[in-house]
Amino acid sequence: MSTTQVTSVEPFVDGHGKAVVNDFSIQVATVNGSGSQTANNVLMRSIFQMGVPVSGKNLFPSNIAGLPTWFTIRASKHGWIGRKKEIDFLVAMNPETAQEDVAKLEPGAAVVYDEPLKLNTLRSDLHFYAVPFDKLVGPVCPEAKLRKLVRNMIYDGVVGWLLGIEFDEIRKALFKQFGPKKAKAAEMNWNAVLAGRDFAEKNLVKTDPFRIERMDQTAGKIIIDGNAATALGCMFAGVTVVTWYPITPSSSLVESLIGYLKRFRVDKETGKATYAVVQAEDEIASIGMVIGAGWAGARAMTATAGPGISLMSEFVGLGYYAEVPAVVFDVQRVGPSTGLPTRTMQGDLLKNAVLSHGDTRHPMLFPSSPEECFTMAGTAFDLAEHFQTPVFVMTDLDLGMNNWMSDPFPYPETPIARGKVLTEEDLNRLNGFARYADVDGDGIGYRTLPGTKHPKAAYFTRGSGHNEKAQYTEREDDYINNMDRLSRKFETMRQHVPKPEVVLNEKASVGLICCGTSRYACEESRDQLLREYGLETSYLRLKAYPFTGDLSDFVSRHERVYVIDQNRDAQLLSLMRLELAAEEIARLRSVRYYGGMPLDARTVTDDIVRQEGL
Amino acid sequence: MSTTAPMPPKKVNRIGLDVLQYRGSKTTLCAGCGHNAISERIVECFYEMGIEPWSVAKFSGIGCSSKSPAYFLGMAHGFNAVHGRAPAVATGALLANRNLLGIVVSGDGDTASIGLGQFMHMLRRNVPLIYVIENNGVYGLTKGQFSATADLGSKLKTGVVNDLPPIDVCLAGIELGATLVARSFSGDKRQLQSILKTCIAHKGLSVVDVISPCVAFNDHEGSTKSYSYMKDHEEPLHEIDFIPHFEEIHVEIPEGEARDVRLHDGSLLRLRKLDRDYDPTNKLEAVRMLHESQKTGEVLTGILYVDSGRDNFTDILNIVDEPLATLPEERVRPSREVLDQIMEELR
Hints:
Number of helices of chain A: 20
Oligomer: heterodimer
Structural class of chain A: alpha/beta
Distance between the termini of chain A: 25 Å
Shape of chain A: globular
Helix content of chain A: 25-40%
Strand order of the largest sheet of chain B: 2-1-3-4-8-7-13-9
Number of strands of chain B: 13
Helix content of chain B: 25-40%
Shape of chain B: globular
Number of helices of chain B: 12
Number of strands of chain A: 23
Largest sheet of chain B: 8 strands, mixed
Strand content of chain A: 15-25%
Radius of gyration of chain A: 27 Å
Order of helices and strands of chain B: HEHEHEHHEEEHEHEHEEEEHEHHH
């Protein structure tokens, strides 16, 4: 792998050597702000349109222009769409990182590079293709200021020719990307693609083995990022009040939502909105508005990331004690301040479970795909209103900001559930109510909404110092009664949260547990463990906290259970420790990754193999 | 005299409620606390204006002032939020149900220290709320620390002298977008009533800074927010008449001596000239007067500024007339066809 280990490369020619079809990864290294995103999406989409399962990951800096960024596309005939650790095909456009990018490649990889970089002198065990991008861009783009952007389209043409991607599909993907309003720009970019293709055809000799060939594995599927999927879920869940403060990686969730709401939630007759969106002054105000709106009966939500959650802590505690519905989408990422804000992490699992002070516990949902982002948004609003409490939906940067292949989303089949809300008629019948009384034995009280036209509708909302009738109290017995009822409510939740996905393998004594986006690496790792090491495994993917009884059953059925965490301190495993019995806890092992990249299967496999002593 | 007088008919307002139905639970604040007087005025004004108590939503943050929503309008929903953050909670509730009449009671610490950010952004949005600041320049509930509205040079009971200038919440209100700004004194019953009634009729954000002496920690020589100091230094800007839209206007005002401001709901605010021809719609003049009063050490009271022309936050957001909170499913969940259309676009 290092430049000193020089091995010569067997040129690949049809019929000589083995072609690698629909099973490799492409990495495009550019600088951000160079407009490469369009070229990368077109490349990904054209492979998708050829029926080949594909995934794309944008690894970008916290910066607007000029810093290195990488886009990884993985084509997998087996349908593995997690990140692949090894890069097979590099497009080196960034002079700053080109040498290091080339040095990291496995022997046999292919490199398309900008000719002046002279990367071919670095190693002799790779397939190099030099392309004079600057010379090619001039004729197709007369406007100098646009050349930086159009230049990237040229590599789509070169890569398309080298990999055998059908150019009709590239054209279709490109025009879809630009949309009907930008047809002129699309035409200029298409000419750049053709310039790349023509150059490659005339000047390059394909020596690498990588090929895209048509399959039929993507028919009917869509491509969408998790944030847009969540936004759609919120709109179809009937969200009415949305507040936010911009923070990576959650901003695009609300921006998508605003776009959809403007299109589909404005009353045709009056031209007025059936929603309110407020960009607040900070996350404290965002959650405060959500709590106020939820209290007054709206389906209210905010979206944020870890630093925002930290600021929301006090209000979330108040929401718990005052029992106010609220939905918080936490698109998890690394670190506070300038702490890798554009890298992914499952960093808020422990914090959110017990956010705020005193004895607080909050439900969390763990979507793992755009489809689950869509469906769980609806589940979150239903849970929040049913249980009158803040609910966290834990996505992450990898899921939220990357494009994913997905089945189309199912239309919600159940009506919107608004929970225990008493109306004027109910109050006439009941002659009043006690806000925090456990009438039904499930720990959930009945509430009224402000504005209910009845002399006995009102109650006074405050923190934990209240009795069943919502009157102020500092009495020991009132406080304990209330806390015990809140515990009962949390226990009731176990029967209502989504159950985990469980794959029980009768031959396995080893189990894997994960949540969220760790699923892609885990599922592929199970395949690697079986094929490469003969290790049979079972699998459980958590979809919610509080955990259901399925978790304890699963752990007790296996001798060793590996809990996969995308954080340093084994947060998911730690959360299990709070709930499982001692003999179950003793079976847990930890697999952790915390480098900020989307988790890959090889990392999981290698760690389990090491711990198993295989 | 052994004859008993016949029970006088119960006095009720225009919606048939008596004043007792506007009261809240018994106050737990100190006897003589200015905040209690303010609660009394709120009770009287909502009663006299004939507001349905269940259409009101009360909000507060934390502090002595923030306890007071429990002491008025017991038939209205109330929300005691976290310290300094009542504006956010009230904003959210008003967005969920724009038909609510929202009133926030805050204090000087709650507004001008921990809550200054939210206060300012609430001003900027012109959220339709009555925002009362019960201002005593001191933290009562934590036993007497200075707040950010304490005057430069004022003294604590312990003898500690304040060495930082105060934040003038009225100046901030005018500068940042409140559409009604007033200042009063908890002991001035008539003026405070007129101001609060005007606020009830106003459809934007009203900020009312009420100097409300703290009898426990800030009513002594050296305090600039004590009863005796206020009696010596209060300078009413004008006499205020408020004529609700449902009452016939019958007052005869000599020409040139009064100025009328018509509010959204048709009510009239009539300012009777005292010694200046004050125009409350003139922003620059309002700011100038406040700066001048700071120089002279006077406490200028009255309605300082009104702008009844600006849209409030719910208008700006163009939300439907009905409460968002209770819109039926067919208005908040788009159809199956819409989802199909979106899915097709993503293929």
